Amino acid sequence: MGALEKMKQTPALSIRNLSILYSGSSVSAVRDVSFELAQGEIACLLGPSGCGKTTLLRAIAGFLMPNQGTIALNGESASEPGRVRSPEKRNVGVVFQDYALFPHLSVRKNIEFGLHKRSEPEKRHRSGELLALIGLETLADRYPHELSGGQQQRVALARALAPKPTLILLDEPFSNLDVELKERLTFEVREILKAENMSAILVTHDQHEAFSMADRIGVMHAGELQQWGSSYSLYHQPNSRMVADFIGQGVFLPGKKTEQGLQIELAHLRLTEDQLPLNDEFDVLIRPDDIIHDDASPMQAIVVRKAFRGADFLYTLMLESGAHVLALVPSHHNHAIGEPIGIKLELDHVITFDRL
Ligand SMILES: Nc1ncnc2c1ncn2[C@@H]1O[C@H](COP(=O)(O)OP(=O)(O)OP(=O)(O)O)[C@@H](O)[C@H]1O
């Protein structure tokens, strides 16, 4: 294998069985976490407050020592119990929530800050490249207080990118911005990271941010990594009720095994023996996009709640049994609460969980 081939195959980050226990605490904040991030891949750590996202990010940055497990950067060990390469020697860039720009330095000087070992022409070249990438060439001589929040965040990103680190860590970088700017910036930041072929990990509470930004998403719960996968697989093939609940919306309908598959209130689903759940007591996950509104359908459900979302309504519908399902319906189908509407089930992925 050639050197280039080898470099391509070595993950930018590799975490094996990592556990972090804060001193004085009896429960690990991160427990037996393993995953890999390929070169140029963007990942997002998602999960409820206190699940261990920031702890994991701080361990990757080199601020915390593992109690168990290892962290390798570009194939080289960076953290193991008893030995941690210091944050400034790890070649990892960090972008914080509050930008942390130097107020007395211009935009250009902020970007050049991490390039102190380079010659002046080299610094100038790299900062020019990054100013163009973040679209702030005309503001190079301004100071941070003369910039908007979104512009400051882009400068913080450019500063982290300047020394071409192995990995960039972004700790809730958009949480201080309003919703519209956040949406635009998540897209822009993704483009900037991709243009630099940079590997990155973002921490967020916001699944929409995770969906629009990440190639891979890690859902954490109580210190454990519940699932590591693409947005598509987390949404359509969640491996636990926790992930199914946390990612997207949906309901669980009770199911019963039959000769040829399984029966739920809305339909009989033909499945082979190996597609059936092992347990007889199980529920089936139904997402809003699995329920199609169809006036011609004999199956009826009553509208009990509706939320206008612009292009569509999110209807909460009551089935004959009294169970509720959700349905996304184009907003020109404006039905009143209490009205019965025709529905049908179009389920591509049958996901079942043992009944609680
Ligand atoms: N310095 C510390 N000492 C002891 N325990 C800590 C410390 N920092 C965090 N913890 C605990 O570790 C667990 C994980 O915290 P962490 O900050 O990693 O969660 P998080 O997912 O980032 O939460 P949030 O989304 O609220 O920022 C929590 O139970 C928290 O109370």
TrEMBL record:
Q: Does the keyword Iron apply?
A: yes
Q: Name one GO biological process term.
A: quaternary ammonium group transport
Pfam families to which the protein is assigned, alphabetical? ABC_tran (PF00005), TOBE_2 (PF08402)
In this entry, which stretches build a coiled coil?
none
Ranges for domain ABC transporter come to 15-247
Enumerate the InterPro entries for this protein. Answer: AAA+_ATPase (IPR003593), ABC_SmlMolc_Importer (IPR050093), ABC_transporter-like_ATP-bd (IPR003439), ABC_transporter-like_CS (IPR017871), ABC_transpr_FbpC (IPR015853), Mo/tungstate-bd_C_term_dom (IPR008995), P-loop_NTPase (IPR027417), Transp-assoc_OB_typ2 (IPR013611)
Annotated GO molecular function terms are:
ABC-type ferric iron transporter activity; ATP binding; ATP hydrolysis activity
Classification via Gene3D superfamilies:
P-loop containing nucleotide triphosphate hydrolases (3.40.50.300)
Keyword field: ATP-binding, Cell inner membrane, Cell membrane, Ion transport, Iron, Iron transport, Membrane, Nucleotide-binding, Transport
Instruction: List the record's Gene Ontology CC terms alphabetically.
Output: ATP-binding cassette (ABC) transporter complex
Is-annotated flag, keyword Transit peptide?
A: no
Name the UniProt record assigns to this protein: ABC transporter ATP-binding protein
